[in-house]
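Hi R.,

As promised on Friday, here is the backbone we talked about, encoded as structure tokens. Could you run it through your design pipeline when you get a chance and send me back a sequence?
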């Protein structure tokens, strides 16, 4: 390529992906790696079981979500003791009404090693339920339709689909996203009529640009069906009157180069969040019958220090999600009086976001609040009176006192002078010293911000003397859109350097030392782990790379691999020499050298649709032949799961227990 030769001695490991289950040599190889991991971790087997029991013991087994009111019914999920999944239920009009169990997912999942039920979508007349099921973990769903009055399933089965769907207001028309069976790309929006053969469903939109994701939804007002088509750097919407589902979709505004926009409907206008001439986004409005960009009028201008992340529309109110100094804020505007205020949260580092708010005509905002020391808390907030009511706080069984833990917000100076935020949490009494174990976590891609949220599993680390830290590095969007722009494409290395500079800042501040410092990241954060293991292997006692994206050049050159084409705006297209050359300088697989590497635990899933299993497998194989140290290198493949790991409420804890045991073993912590 471009006159450059690359040798991939482990390319055969992709055979399971290319040839299917007949490629026994690949499966045998992965099983052998699993056996090796089990052998190397054998001394921790009992400890892993204890950790699993300990973490599971903090989770309330018999539990219920906070009911959400929608179109005359209260909807909620509840879980039962000993069960991995949940029941999806509703009550009519009042929480005192009798329960209707819409789906018993525990029962549905019986006999399946993996089970995912998503996209629960009740028809406007409350009589039908559409939902998606995936039993393989490749995010290829079959959509089923259930008659909620008789309990019977319709014969209609729609496959392959993305799982979600949207009803027309006639209660018999269903719009959904059809996916490509091989590349898994969302290719077409189709219209299904109840009772018809899904193979004959009409295509209402076909995406021609395979770098775009598409999907279908509805405005909160229930007035319009919306088709969205978006890439990393541009988007386009189509709209249709939901009362006329047989009609034709109209383009809201044709896609514009390097312009993102998002829309919702509010009374006599559409609201638009866009980055057109606005790096940190702005809010615009336009009349219902004049949706082209020439009619857009500014409502909230762009600001240099505030990122406008999104809006939640109500009949009389507008909730604007903003991000300032790395923290999320909820701004409430009364559209009748134009009076505004912010919801007060009162902690130095936290995460807060608007939750499920399906009712358009409501004065109540449901939001979720959490921090490194505050468990997930669901609030109802009266946007008129500013009164708030805590509806539920995640219960940590066995007792948890937030006063026993300390959270801090620090700023490390990166090599180019930029200040990078770090969120820390540790147990009171933990002494910060060169002997203190510290786990540093980050993601740093796609503009995904990693906010300071609570984790009950993390207590197993903190209670054994670990400090846990999140590095809010470039490539995320914590500090505004520029933060993202400065951590992608030809600026991707800022992501890796920020993480290394945060680590050095913590070492210099005597929070820890290289002998006790651990790093963790998954997916694109796994790319980060691969890059830092090549750039500064001396900094880490251990690295945990979860489902890591590590073979950047090969994957971005192969358009048969799911999602590759969607990613060109993030990483670049290596068919262009500039991007090829730059990618090759950081791609972890291409930069493995004969040198010492830290202890490493690498995880993957055989059916992963996001990062194919062969990337981490090849990377580990190459590391084995090149590394000059005696440190541990482990690969663990979940043979029944994909990118998200095991399904079920508790199975994933076994994976967490393995990761914790890996670090504890290196620290000499045995119980």
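Update: got your reply. Pasting your designed sequence below so it's all in one thread:
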């Amino acid at each position: 390529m471009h006159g450059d030769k690359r040798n991939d001695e482990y390319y055969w490991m992709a055979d399971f992906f290319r040839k299917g289950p007949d490629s026994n040599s690949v499966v045998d190889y992965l099983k052998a790696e699993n056996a090796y991991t089990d052998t190397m971790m054998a001394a921790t087997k009992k400890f892993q079981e204890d950790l699993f029991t300990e973490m599971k013991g903090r989770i309330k087994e018999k539990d219920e979500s906070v009911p959400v009111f929608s179109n005359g019914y209260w909807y909620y999920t509840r879980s039962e003791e000993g069960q991995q999944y949940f029941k999806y239920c509703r009550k009519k009009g009042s929480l005192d009404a009798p329960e209707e169990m819409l789906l018993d997912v525990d029962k549905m999942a019986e006999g399946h090693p993996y089970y995912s039920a998503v996209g629960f979508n009740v028809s406007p007349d409350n009589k039908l339920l559409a939902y998606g099921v995936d039993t393989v973990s490749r995010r290829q769903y079959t959509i089923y339709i259930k008659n909620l009055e008789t309990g019977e399933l319709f014969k209609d089965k729609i496959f392959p689909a993305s799982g979600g769907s949207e009803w027309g207001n006639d209660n018999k028309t269903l719009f959904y996203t059809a996916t490509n069976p091989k590349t898994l790309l969302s290719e077409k929006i189709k219209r299904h009529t109840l009772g018809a053969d899904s193979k004959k469903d009409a295509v209402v939109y076909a995406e021609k640009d395979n770098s775009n994701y598409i999907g279908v939804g509805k405005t909160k007002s229930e007035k319009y069906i919306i088709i969205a088509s978006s890439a990393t750097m541009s988007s386009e919407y189509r709209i249709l009157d939901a009362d006329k589902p047989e009609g034709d979709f109209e383009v809201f505004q044709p896609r514009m180069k390097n312009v993102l926009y998002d829309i919702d409907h509010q009374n006599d206008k559409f609201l638009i969040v866009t980055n057109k001439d606005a790096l940190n986004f702005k809010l615009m409005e336009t009349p219902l019958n004049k949706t082209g960009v020439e009619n857009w009028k500014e409502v909230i201008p762009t600001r240099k220090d505030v990122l406008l992340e999104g809006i939640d529309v109500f009949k009389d109110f507008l909730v604007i999600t903003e991000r300032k100094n790395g923290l999320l804020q909820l701004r409430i505007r009364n559209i009748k009086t134009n009076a505004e205020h912010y919801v007060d949260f009162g902690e130095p580092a936290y995460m807060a976001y608007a939750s499920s708010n399906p009712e358009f005509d409501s004065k109540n905002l449901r939001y979720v609040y959490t921090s490194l020391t505050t468990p997930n808390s669901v609030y109802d907030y009266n946007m008129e009176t500013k009164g708030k009511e805590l509806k539920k706080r995640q219960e940590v069984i066995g007792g948890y006192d937030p006063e026993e833990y300390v959270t801090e917000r620090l700023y490390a100076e990166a090599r180019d002078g930029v200040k990078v935020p770090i969120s820390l949490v540790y147990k009171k009494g933990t002494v910060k010293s060169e002997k203190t174990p510290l786990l540093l976590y980050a993601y740093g891609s796609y503009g995904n911000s990693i906010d300071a949220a609570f984790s009950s599993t993390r207590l197993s680390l903190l209670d054994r003397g670990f400090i846990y830290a999140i590095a809010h590095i470039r490539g995320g969007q914590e500090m505004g859109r520029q933060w993202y722009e400065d951590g992608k494409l030809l600026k991707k290395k800022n992501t890796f350097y920020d993480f290394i500079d945060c680590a050095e800042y913590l070492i210099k501040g005597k929070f820890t030392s290289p002998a006790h410092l651990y790093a963790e990241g998954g997916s694109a954060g796994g790319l980060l782990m691969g890059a830092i293991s090549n750039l500064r292997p001396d900094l880490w006692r251990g690295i945990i790379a979860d489902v890591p994206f590590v073979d950047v050049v090969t994957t971005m050159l192969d358009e048969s691999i799911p999602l590759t084409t969607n990613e060109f705006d993030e990483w670049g297209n290596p068919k262009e020499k500039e991007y090829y050359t730059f990618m090759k300088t950081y791609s972890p697989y291409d930069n493995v050298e004969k040198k010492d590497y830290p202890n490493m635990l690498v995880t993957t899933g055989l059916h992963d649709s996001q990062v194919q299993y062969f990337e981490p497998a090849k990377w580990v194989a190459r590391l084995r032949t090149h590394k000059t140290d005696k440190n541990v290198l482990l690969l663990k493949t979940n043979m029944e799961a994909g990118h998200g790991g095991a399904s079920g409420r508790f199975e994933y804890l076994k994976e967490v227990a393995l990761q914790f045991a890996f670090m504890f073993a290196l620290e000499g912590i045995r119980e």
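One thing I noticed while checking it: The chain has 13 helices and 36 strands.

Thanks again,
M.
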